[in-house]
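Lecture 7 notes: from sequence to structure.

We start with a single chain of 446 residues. Read the sequence below before looking at the structure.
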Amino acid sequence: MSGHDFSYSREHLRELAQTVLDHARKLGASACETDVSEGMGQSVTVRRGEVETIEYNRDKGIGVTVYLGQRRGHASTSDFAPAALRATVEAALSIARFTAEDACAGLPEAGLLAKGEMDLDLFHPWHLPVEQAIDLARRCEQAAFAVSKLVRNSEGAGVSAQQSHFISANSLGFMGGYATSRHYLSCSPIAAKGKDMQRDDWYSGHRDPADLASAEAIGDYAARRALSRLGAKKLKTRQVPVLLEAPLAAGLVASFVHAVSGGSLYRKSSFLVDSLGKQVFPSFMRIEERPHLRKGLASSSFDDDGVATKDRTVVDGGVVQGYFLSTYTARKLGMPTTGNAGGSHNLLVQPGDKDFRGLLKEMGTGLLVTELLGHGINYVTGDYSRGAAGYWVEGGEVAYPVQEVTIAGNLRDMFRGIVAVGNDVVARGSKQVGSILLDRMTVAGN
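Now the structure, written as tokens:
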């Protein structure tokens, strides 16, 4: 990719957004909001030293939402021509005319909308010619093969460089947007000994390519993870403590976010309905939302509704202090929006004083989980059951690798049963959390 050569300037995106708003007003819409965006990037994968894929992507689009009183219609197009914009607005209006009235539909209150620009340092285009991307992926995979002769195969190493920019606007006078970038390096080696074959992977993802781990470090670490899984055994069914490695702990936090998000709450499809102000976690648990972290993977000065974001504490002393609400879901619940249309922003789980080895020592005997399979979560009841792989731990030390087991419990009990959060913090999407030790889960095997 040659750099930040967007086809459209930021000013052009603004003009397109204003054109949509003007069309909607002239055609009788009582309110309108629009998003105009453009993205571009390249991805390269190499397998066993040979180039497997080279993909270039360039996308653009305009989404239009119009309101006729409390009736809502939405339409979108990838055609930026004036006639196409007008036709898209007309299509949205046509849908609105046949839509039932919804008392909660409409734009946010004007006073909640973001004002002014905020530079969160989210745009770092990667000037990466395809030849260099291929070389980077090869070096990553070669580092994996160099670890041991037992690393005999690979699902490949990949490099991805992506960037985009957008403008959001509505008929209350809000107009804002910015450019972002996101880049990745990954490797998935396969280790084999006799008939036993095991794979694992690792990746690094950041806004700024300068912050990525080196290709050699990623390949080396991914290979060591795959090698350590050779000789994996099954377990007999038992109840034991479980330690979720940091990347998987981020998934546990995501389950909490889902359960206390507006859509789940107003539909009453969550086991955490009416949990505001109630103890859900142990008293040492604290989760903060920090939307304005520089270079944050989920940083934003406003949400998808244009509502200004702000720092807040979501969990304090284990007690739920706030939900995740958009303008619409907040109205459905009779509450104020939390600026979370489009999802959560950087969630920081307060780490404890133990590192990963310290958590192993605290667990003593139990299961360290490094991979989860399937999606066996029932958010209505909180029941949790997923395939897992990892390591059996005895006396605070890894004894042997484990595969083909299932870990099961209930999220309500799992949240309450958190024993410790490690200081081995990783950022995975909008979550920043260390490994999490749970007091007890059912591990089902033979």
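The first helix runs from residue 10 to 26. Keep this in mind for problem set 3.
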